[in-house]
Specification:
Layout (H helix, E strand, L loop, with lengths): L8 E3 L10 H6 L22 H13 L25 E6 L5 H11 L5 E5 H11 L1 H8 L4 E7 L4 H16 L3 E6 L13 H8 L6 E6 L18 H14 L1 E6 H8 L7 H4 L5 E7 L5 H16 L4 E5 L8 H4 L4 H16 L1
Parallel strand pairs: 1-7, 2-5, 2-6, 3-4, 4-5, 7-8, 8-9
Helix pairs in contact: 2-3, 4-5, 5-6, 11-13
Amino acid sequence: MTSSPATTGLIHLVDRDPAVSGAEMVDALVPPPQFDGATFDSYRADPAYPSQQEAKELLQAFAGGATAPVKKVGFFRRAEKTPPVKPGVYLDGGFGVGKTHLLASIYHAMPARRKYFGSFIEYTALVGILGYAKAVELFRGSDLLCIDEFELDDPGDTMVMTRLLGELVASGTKLAATSNTPPNALGEGRFAAQDFLREIQSMSDSFRTIRIDGTDFRQRAIDGEARVLSDADYRDAVDGAATGGVASDDAFSGVIGHLARVHPSRFIRLIDGLDVIGLRDVEVLHDQSAALRLVAFVDRAYDAQIPIRATGVPLNTVFAEEMLGGGYRKKYLRAVSRLVALTHS
């Protein structure tokens, strides 16, 4: 950022104009703070969904920390052939089943000298700043590249990343990825592997798909409605947070307008140092571009585990009904899940 963040007090997001250098972006390619200590042991597989435990064991083997599970066979049946080891794994599952936790566990468990962890947006932004050739030079020969939320919405960015990954695999880099779905892929929560593999085409043979079924863990312990505060309670919450830390206080419409002027790769800097995000007078969004920018903002706030305090309409209703029925449905549902969790944190 252009200046050191405050340690206490009240700030306004609309007053922040974050800047980030290529070197800073490279340094930031590590798991989000909430996954600093993520391990395979701390991943709690839901016994109701056996694919979670199986995925955990397969990924432990991929990271070099265990042997892949072997399915038992009958006396007269031949043992199933072990699938060939591939340089990449793709975690295929709905939101809230622990994909990012497992991705971070791979990062922490792999005994690698050079490894990176970032979102698709972070990698493509870095390629934009450094240029393609320098990005290849930077990552070539690295041991592991983890890509969370591989974006399939932009054909240009997808093509650039696919080309980059192809060069890295040729240099011996292992890949681990999760993704969303392309705009025309509808569904109720699973990020279908066939969509991912179709979009990356030439790289599809490099990935082993590991399916993870389950329910959204963020909805297991809390109510599905985002918490809404009265004006007085909001004031108390934001001012109280500013006493011992840093809180932001903005009109929701002002933040939405500001996000249009800040590149999504800088959203993490926009909320740097915050302990609470305050949003006044939340209203339903009908503009798709504004809604997608909010999704990216929510992802960064959730990664940083910054509580949100809000007035107006409940944040779980912020996306208009026509949007929830469209091609970006899964993105919006994931954002709603995270917004509900952050308003209760």
